[in-house]
Amino acid sequence: MSYFDSVKKIQFAGSQSKDPLSFKFYNPAEKVGDLTMEEQLRFGVAYWHTFTEDLSDPFGSGTAIRPWDKFSDPMDKAKARVEAAFEFFEKLGIPYFCFHDADIAPEGATLKETFDNQDIIVDLMEDYLKDSKVKLLWNTVNNFTHPRFVHGAATSNNAEVYAYAAAKVKKGLEVGNRLGAENYVFWGGREGYESLLNTDLKLELDNLGRFFHLAVDYAKEIGFDAQFLIEPKPMEPTTHQYDYDTAHGFAFLQKYGLEKHFKFNIEANHATLAGHTFEHELRYARINGMLGSVDANQGHPHLGWDTDEFPSDLYATTLAMVEILKNGGLGKGGLNFDAKVRRTSFEPEDLFKAHIAGMDSFAIGLKTAHRIIEDGALDQVVSKRYASFESGIGQKIVEGTTSLKELQEYALKNDQPVNQSGHLEEIRATLNQYLVTTLDSK
Asked: What's phi and psi for 184, nearest 5 deg?
């Protein structure tokens, strides 16, 4: 059966189109540089927000109208969601999707029953994947929603919960291997603490490191060669998450000897919550060779929680794509829309319109970023600003061939350093010029 009868396959119609169910800037076949938009952007649909989200919030029940909700039996609804999902992927023309285990199948009365439910749905997905262009960008497990994870999962104070979480990850790795997932994500939804008063910080971190090593070992055992990803988040639901931001995560991976096995899945809204910009987190991961994939969304500037809005900030998408292009692309990773429609956007068609808006926003970002890099617009600014390190005493500092004695002697001879303006307002104006000319181009 069809779940989106009113929607035809979404087509590129150009920037002048008035059709809300068409792409204005995202043309999958258009080349930007040597690769097409589809090859570079590698968009993915978040199964949880798109097919299981009911748009409830702490102050009201769900508003989402979803055709598969007519099924009352949880497994019948799960099967209907798979049918709806692949219809959605096909009509949107999106190449990837992502899911948690709890998104695709209901939990059973026992862990075995839960796994059995997953197997039924994975069988169905496997059949659809045989005839579909879409692929699994990444999968993961939900080790945070159920009350059993009230004290965490891999950082729980309860060894039985630790074992339960490990069992789910083992199953998740097998599912990912079976469905050809290109990545596997670890988001520690409750891997953190509320108070140090009752927390053994060292034990919890050590156990988390052990947990990741167990996952690496098992993936090798079953021949699962997906890229492992950690997704940083500073808070919510715990007071302090162990994967606070990319810098914290990178230090953790280095301490436990995991940096060769993991990269980062950077989420824009999580960067905001950590007090960073999206591009800061991408840059930090990139310069350390750790940028793996992206959750493409945005937060609300007036709200200090994870709003998971669809991306529409062209300034942010442009600067994000500058980092991604300088990274040489995302490799096995992609741009997964970990974003949900607003509670007031409750009609099924809104799911398409939201993804179209996000895909167009990143298409604009891609084209603008490509021109900025080709012209060297930002590179020239940075190079000029740090020119003092290209010769003389600056070059010696960079090469590590100077000493405090020599630096003091230099400072005494050159007693009054002269700084130059950073011209930040001019640079922002230049960025605006690039954006406007991208939007003006037909």
From this structure: -135, 125
AA identity, residue 304: G
Task: Count H helices and E strands in the chain, helices first.
Answer: 16, 14
Cα separations (Å) of 204 from 14, 60, 200?
52, 36, 6
Distance CA 106, CA 243 (A): 28
Q: Is 295 a catalytic residue?
A: no
**Structure-token pair, residue 45:** 């649909």
Contact 166, 121 (CB under 8 A): no
Specify the residue for token string 């891997």: 191
The full DSSP string for 64-133 is ---GGGG--SHHHHHHHHHHHHHHHHHHHT--EEEEEHHHHS---SSHHHHHHHHHHHHHHHHHHHHT-S
Of 364, 362, 277, 280, the C-alpha closest to 323 is: 280
Beta bridge partners of 42: none
Whole-number pLDDT of residue 17: 96
Distance, C-alpha 291 to centroid of its chain? 10
Q: Taking residues 419-442, what's their average pLDDT?
A: 93
Phi, psi of 43 (to 5 degrees): -65, 145
C-alpha 186/C-alpha 373 separation (Å) is 32
Token pair of 329, please? 């692309």
Contact 351, 340 (CB under 8 A): no
So what's the pLDDT on residue 1? 83
Residue 237 contacts by C-beta under 8 Å, 6 or more apart in sequence? 144, 189, 190
- Please determine, for residue 100, whether its predicted confidence score (pLDDT) is greater than 80: yes
In the block, tokens 């156990």 appear at: 207
Angle between helices 74-92 and 111-130 (to 10 degrees): 30
DSSP E strands in 141-259: the ranges are: 183-186, 192-193, 227-230, 240-241
Strand-pair category, 11-12 with 262-267: unpaired
What DSSP element (H or E) covers 362?
A: helix 348-375
pLDDT at 442 over 70: no
Q: Quick check: is 103 catalytic? A: yes
**pTM of this prediction?**
0.96
Q: Which of 101, 103, 245, 306 is catalytic?
A: 103
CA 94 to chain centre: 16
Structure tokens that stand for 193 in this block: 């603490």
d(CA 425, CA 428): 5
Given 100, 280, 355, 370, which residue is catalytic? 100
Question: Encoding tokens for residue 109?
Answer: 């009365």
d(CA 297, CA 275): 16
Residue 304 has pLDDT above 90, yes or no: no
Residue 337 DSSP SS3: strand
